[in-house]
Amino acid sequence: MPAASSARREIGPAALFAFRVLLLVVLFFAWWGLVSLDVLPAFFFGQPFIVLRKAGEWFASGKIYPHLGVTLVETVLAFLVGTLLGVAAGLWLGLRALPSALLEPYIKAANAMPRVILAPIFAVWFGLGIASKVALGVTLVFFIVFFNVYQGVREVSPTVLASVRMLGASPRQLVRYVYLPSARAGSFPACTLRWEWPSSARSWASISGPRLASVTSFCKRRGASTSIPCSRGSWC
């Protein structure tokens, strides 16, 4: 981020790091004070020192590491699959005028759809295992990559294209040496954002999955035949 780079040059990296730690400490004690004074309900916001102690116990016992590993695998898979699909679709539509004109309104409409509503749908389609979380993360990453690559391809200078074609470049060489570098220049600044979205999608899927399973269990007790697929091919 340009602002962070400018601040690092002005006050130095060590001072910037110290201020960040100080801000974290201030926020932590503000949380503790608001909960202690009953401004914030402890039932919903928790006791900060109890939360910190419990997290320390999880790390010390190693109980949390398998869960962090699963989250990391889901995030990386969603990032990779979404990036590959976004690059492929962005290049294809950026180089094809007719398909781009036909699909543009539908892609924009799909991007405008709230991703949260897809979590229970993917849970029904793919089960409560890793596949539903990865699918939801892919829907978040795909559009970020797609629009950056698509815009990068469409903004290639006609003068550059004419010069390269005049030198005898083939269509494959145009893609490799002209369109792909332009797409990379547009997509790399969004890498940080692309990493954040799969993790948040995984969290939403983890929240909605148990709720969906609870609803299914309730329906079964009432005699309904509703069921959803769990992981490893079983059914809840």
Please tally the helical runs, counting DSSP H or I stretches of 4 or more residues. Answer: 11
Strand content: under 5%
Largest sheet: none
Helical content, roughly?
over 70%
Overall domain count:
2
The low-pLDDT segments are 207-216, 224-236
Average pLDDT: 77
**CATH homologous superfamily placement of the largest domain:** MetI-like
Q: Please tally the β strands and state the result.
A: 0
The CATH class of the largest domain turns out to be Mainly Alpha
Order of SSEs: HHHHHHHHHHH
Descriptive overview:
By secondary structure, this protein is mainly alpha-helical. It has two domains: 1-63, no CATH class; 68-233, MetI-like (MetI-like fold). Helix content is 81%, strand content 0%. It has helices at 2-11, 13-36, 42-45, 48-61, 65-95, 97-112, 118-126, 130-154, 158-166, 171-187, 191-221. Helix 5 crosses helix 11 (191-221) and helix 8 packs across helix 10 (171-187). It is extended and about 70 Å long. The chain starts with a helix and ends in a 15-residue tail after the last helix.
